[in-house]
User: What shape does this take?
Amino acid sequence: RADAPLSLDPGATLIEALKLWTYACVLTAGASLASRRRASLGALVLCGSALLLALVTLAHGIADATQVFGIYTPRLGGKGFRVAPLINPNNLAGYLNLGFAAGLGLLATDEPPLPRWLIALSLTPIVGMCVLTGSRAGIGGLALSLLLAYWLLKPKADETRDKRRLFRQSVGAAALVLAVAVALAGAASGTRLWHLLFEDNLSKLRLASAAIPLVRQYFWLGIGRGAFESVFPGTHTAPDNSIFSHPENFLLQWASEWGVPITLLALGGILLVLRRGRLGPGESRVRRALLAGILALAAQNLFDLAFEIPGVVIALMVAVAFALRPGEAGGAAERRPSRVPRAAQAGAVLLVGLAVIGVAWRGGNTSLTMDRDLVRSALPTKSGDTAQYTEFATAVRAAMDRHPAEPYFPRLAALVEWRFRQNPLRFVNRALERGPSEGRTHYLLGQILAARGLKAQALLELRSAAEFEPSLVSRIAAVVLKLTLDGAELSRAAPEGANGAPMLLALAGRLPRSSEPTALALIEEALQRDPANSKARIRLVKRLVASLADQGPTCSDAARERCIQSAKAQLAALEHLRPPLNDLATLRASFLLAIGQIDEALRSIDGACAQMDDRSACLSVWLQAVAKSRDGAALTRVARAVQTQICPNEKGCPNLLWATGEVALSLGNVELALGQFEKAAAEDSTSARWRGVSHQATKAGYPGRALRAMERAVALAPRDMALANERNALRQSALRAIH
Assistant: This one.
C-alpha cells in the first residue's frame, strides 16, 4: 500500500534482498561442502584468504598507494594501509580476526593440512595488519577471539596427555605469533597507532545513541532493509550533507530496519541454530575455533558494523557452515538422502536468484550516493535555461520516488525552483517534513523568506538553522546582517543558551566598524551565555585592544578605564585555561602596547614567539614593541627570529622581512634595513619588490645596491618601459658620481 509501504527506500531494500540471497547461496553451498569434507578445509580457506588480504594491504601500504590495485580510487580518499580491497579499517580488522580464529583451529587440530610452523608463520601478518588498522573494536575482537578460543579449546580433565601437550604447544605458538606481530606493527606505525587506540573520539557511540529515536518511531515494522541512510537524516542532522549508512551497531541496525519484534525473532532463531549445533566434547577443535571467531566478530559488530559488507559476511557464512556442520571430527559426516534431486534444488535456487536480480536491477540499481551525484550533476548552470531545468526536474523527481524519506532531494529541488522564480515552498515543506532538524533546509527557507521581505519569519528560520547546524553560523550571519543591524534583533537571531554563542560571535565578526558597540555587546553576551568559551574572551580582548589603540568611541575618554579593566579581567581568565592558551603572550603584549606600557610589552614578548601557534602575529607585535621602544638590541633579536622562525617556509615571510627593514631604517640601522629589504625581495621575487629595494637603497645613499636591485626588477618585467627608464637614470647617476 502507498500509505503503509514495506520500505521507505524500496530500491535499497531490493539491493539488500539480492545480498541476502547471495549469503543464503554461500551458506547453502558451504553447508553442502561441509557435510562431505572436514572442517579444516573451511578453516584453511578462511585463513588463506585473510593472509592474502593482509599481504595485499601490506603491499598497498609499502607502495603508499592511493588506488586499490592501481585501478579504483576510493571516494573518501586515503592512501597507504588505508587503501585495500576492504577500505574501511574496521571491516578489514573483522575479516582478519575471522581468518585468525580459523588459523588457531588449524594450529590446535590433531592433523593439520599444513605444517604447524607454516600455519603459525601465516598468522603473523594477519595479526600484524589487524593491529596496524588501529581499529579499537577490531583489536578488541582479536583479544576476544583468543580468549574464546582458549576457553573452547582447553582440554577437559579426561582427555589424553597428548591432547594436553598439543594444546600447550598451540598456546605457545599463538603467544609467539601475537608478540612478534604486535612488535612489528608497533615499530611500523609508531605514535600513529598509539593515537588511534587512545584517542577520545566517541562519535560512533553518539551515532548509535542517535539511532535510538528511529527505532522508537518505527518500533513494530521498521523502515525497511537498507533504508537507514535515507531515513536517518529525519532524526539526526549531519554536517555537510554527510550520509550515515549504518549506526555502527548491528542490533540497532536490525531493529530500525526490521522492527523490534522481527529483530527479536531473528536473534531467537540464531540462538536456536547455535543450540542445535552446539559442540560436544568430541567435536573438532577447528569447529570450536571457528565458533570463537564468529562470536568475536558478532561482539565487534556492536561497535563497528562489518555485517553490512558482503565480503565480510560471505566469509562469515563459510565459517558458520563449517562450524555448525553435522558429524564428529575426523569421522564421516552424517548425511540424509534428499528426496529432491540436486538438479531440481539447483534449478530452484537459480530461478529465485534470477528473479531477485531482475527485480533489484529494475528498481534498485542505484544507491543513495549515486543518486545524489546524479542529481547534482544535473543542476542547472543557467537560471534561464529551460532544457536544463526540465532535465533536473526529471532527475530529482525520480530520485525522490526511489528515496521517498530522504530530505536532501526536495531541498535541492526547492533551491532550483527558487532560482527559476518558481514556487519553492512546496519542496521546502516536503524537506522539512522528512528532516525537521536539517539546518540547511531552515537556512534555505530563511533566505527565501528574507528575499520576500518577511524579516521576522526569516530570522526565526535562520535561528533554527544555527541551532540545528552550528557549522553554518558564518553563512547564516551574513544573511541576518542583510536583514538588520539592530542589536536586540541580532541577539534574538541566535539560539538560546550556550548554543547561541557561536552565532553571536559570527554576527559580531561580520559587523561593520561603525557598529563597534553592538559587536562588543554581542561578544559580551556570548561570554555570559558560555563563560567557558575561550574564543569569546579572545575576540573581546582583540576588540578592546583595537579600540584602545585607535582611541575609538567604545574606549575613549571616560570609557577607557572600563575597557582597560575588562581587558585585564579577560587576560587573567585566559591565563587559567586548561590547556593553556598558546598565543596569550601576543594578546598581552598587544594590550600593553595599546595602553602605552611599551617597556613591559617588550619584556613580555621578547623571545616568546618560537612556541606560538601564530608566529607571524607574534613577531608583528614584537616588531611594534621594538619600534616604539627604539631598542636596537631587541631589533637584532627580532630580525634573527623572523629569519629562523618564519622564513623561508611561511607566506608571511616577505612582509615580515620588509617590516623589519622599515623598523631598522627608522632606528638608523641602514645596513640591517637594506639586508632585510633584499631578503624580502629574494623570497617574493617580483619587479615591485625589487623596485622598492632600489628606492630604499637610493634614499639611504647606496647607488650601487640601488642599481643592482633595479636590474633585477627590469629582468622580471622586461616590457615595463617605466622600469627601464628608471634603470637608465640610475646608471647615468652612477656614472656622474664616478666622474
